[in-house]
User: Fold this.
Amino acid sequence: MTRVVSHRIETVSGTLTMPGDKSISHRALIIGASAVGETKIYGLLEAGDVMATALALRNLGADVKKNSDGSWSVFGRGVGGLSEPTEILDMGNSGTGVRLLMGLVAAHPFNTIFSGDTSLCARPMGRVIYPLRRMGAGFNAHSGDTLPLIVQGSDMLRPVTEALTVASAQVKSAILLAGLNTRGQTTVVEAFPSRDHSENMLEAFGAEISIVEEERGKAITLTGYPELLAQNISIPGDFSSAAFPMVAALITPGDGILINNVCLNSLRKGLLDTLLEMGAKINIKHHDVLSGEQVGDILVKFGLLKGVRVPSERAPKMIDEYPILAVAAACAEGKTVFEGVSELRLKESDRLSAISRGLAACDVEVDETKDSISITGKGKAPLGGGHILSNMDHRVAMAFLVLGMVTEKPIIVDDAAYIDTSFPGFIEVMNGLGGDLRAGVEL
Ligand code: S3P
Assistant:
């Protein structure tokens, strides 16, 4: 356990670059492993979650290695070309890694056993198991459709048309990855569009993907047995990581901060839209496209924020950003309501309850229902002083350490070790901006 205490500071300023996008990093490794030839990846996120995926792919027979120039190479086995692992694939804390790989191996004629840490073993896998079962794969899971589980894969899966019952890019991607080694057309219909990195990258590798807007939602169809050809991929900075210094700069006086080269995929930017509605001083400069994804530099300045209502339709576009938005809301003037966010209970921890318990411990007025939360701020930093249990959840830990940068009393986070699953170097980055985060401090 690495306890970290975040103390109040007066100002933040600086220019920074974020580690690579986590979602795109997983996909670059996985799709690279399914292509023919050497895929070179620049800017891969070297964090626990992505490393678990890299190791799993090695166990599945793909050669994945880091080069001396810092790039990574994946020597793909072609669609359907992976081999039966001799070990249990331990996916650590990573929901994305396990769910995407479950889809990939479901269309291979061998058995794969997945496990993970206690947080991952508590998360629901039925959402991936059921559609893949309809395609013909077999599963033997721990009770409640959780890990550890065995996937009994097959190279004779049936193509399906699957209307998603939960807005989830992980479920969508798992089905599409299974569709790669499946004859015919596999279709996923999403009523509420989620991040489309899988579709973008599969297309860039040569897969045939069609997207049709239907009355019931967005229908994404992949034609099976594509010849995927290895690519060079440059991974932009992770918007979900940038969210932490962004909110720090919004709530702390100073010259503001500039974050370069951040992924601005339109299906990931819900937090930006929400903060702008709250009156945040944020400007996007220097738009560009990097490996098929929109990127830009984000300039953020301190200013008063106002409470807003965040509608449930926006949730898929900002699903990982609610903990840090809660911190902005705690410092804003008036009430902010997150509506229709029961999915937050199924993340690395129950984030609705983590937000409400943590904010209440920092003297913030908060009201939680089964699928919503309302936070009433006073237009200034709350008192703070909370002792936060992060429950193996990186984003809960980071969010409360950001809040501690402005509260009168320091905020203690019990264990910051899990921050490394998505944002290695977080403490150094925040301290570089002027933060006073002290690791390993005794109570
Ligand atoms: C992700 C999708 C989201 C998100 C996760 C990354 C992805 O999960 O919370 O951090 O890379 O596809 P859901 O698919 O469960 O919404």
In short: The first strand starts at residue 4 and ends at 7. The first helix runs from residue 22 to 33.
